[in-house]
Amino acid sequence: MTLLLWTLLVPLLTGVLAVLPGPRWLREMRLVAGLALTLVLSVATAGQFLAGGVPSAFGDALRVDGLSALVLVLSAFVGLMSGTYSVGYLRRNEERRRGPYMPRENERRAPRPSDQRRLVPPWRRREFDALVPLYVFAMLLVAVSNNLGILWIAVELTTLVSVFMVAFHNRDTSLEAAWKFLVLGSLGLAFALLGTVLLFASGRGLLGEGMSGLHWTRLMSLAHELHPFTLKLGVVFALIGYGTKAGLAPMHTWKPDAYREAPSPAGVLMAVGMLNGALYCLLRIHLIAKAALGPGFSGGLLLMLGLLSVAVATPFILIQWNLKRLLAYSSIEHVGIMAVGLGLGGEAATFGALLHMTYHTFAKPLAFFSAGTLAQLHRSSDFDDIGSGSLGRTPVASALFVVAAVMMTGSPPFGMFFSEMTILRAGFLGPHVVAVPFFLACLVLLFCGFFYQVGRLVLGEQPGSSARTPDPERFDVGTATTILAAVLAVVSAFYLPPGLLELIRAAVRVVEGGQ
Question: What's the structural domain count of the chain?
Answer without folding.
Answer: 1
